[in-house]
Amino acid sequence: MNLKNDLRDVGYDLIDSPIRNHKPLQLWLKKTFDVPELYYENVNHAFRSDTEIDIIEDQALRVNYNQQQQYKFNIGITVLEQLLVSLGLGNLSLSSKFKSGSSVSISYGKSKTLTIPSGIISRFFSMADFQHPNPELIRNANRNNILIITGVLSAKDLKATIVTNKEIDNSVTGELSDMAEGNASFQMTSDNVMEIYSEGNAAFPIAVKANRLDFDKGEYSDIKLITDNRSFF
């Protein structure tokens, strides 16, 4: 099963950067040609409204090790190393130990999804005002530069499978285990395949749902889902 496609089907973008501080109701700034950057930690820091927003758990959206994302080797090592950095395992330096191969696959376990229904978000903004006069905020709102995080899929467990094109030296397993200091385990499933497990972590974001706020001359118009067909995160 293709994890990226499964998540896109329900409006989520699989995170592929080392930045994993995403939370529901954050506001992010997305200007043309720029990567998104955190703008406000919570929508209530920028807007006030008579409508309260409750974050709920989506019991239907969970992922497991059967849903994996497979990459070509060098792309996969790049994505995996960035992910390991966010888990405090950036010292493993996988790219220096695995020079060539055919593929890298990544999957997750013990997942949880927190979300806010789009109707609640729309009601909030239809009644909202700024917390205080804010020229920069109205400029970004009118230019539709503001994204709101409306869902975050997190996981506690990570599994990665590295397939090389030559036999992996047995010493690599021990070396990586020492460097991980108990925060990850390494298992050879064949001469050229290594599996990496990092389990029992604090939950970390793996995918986000985000909507773009649509304002017209200071008046809220709509929210538009943008993570169902674009890779912003």
UniProtKB/TrEMBL annotation:
Tell me the membrane topology, using the record's own terms: Multi-pass membrane protein
Q: Which InterPro entries match?
A: GSDM_bact-type
In terms of domain of life, where is this protein from? Answer: Bacteria
Q: Does the keyword Plastid apply?
A: no
Question: Where is the protein situated, by its record's location annotation?
Answer: Cell membrane; Cytoplasm
Give the keywords, sorted.
Answer: Antiviral defense, Cell membrane, Cytoplasm, Membrane, Transmembrane, Transmembrane beta strand
* Major site of localization recorded for this protein: membrane
The family line of this record is: Belongs to the bacterial gasdermin family.
Protein name per its UniProtKB record: Gasdermin bGSDM
What species was this sequence derived from? Mangrovivirga cuniculi
Q: What is the lineage of its organism?
A: Bacteria, Pseudomonadati, Bacteroidota, Cytophagia, Cytophagales
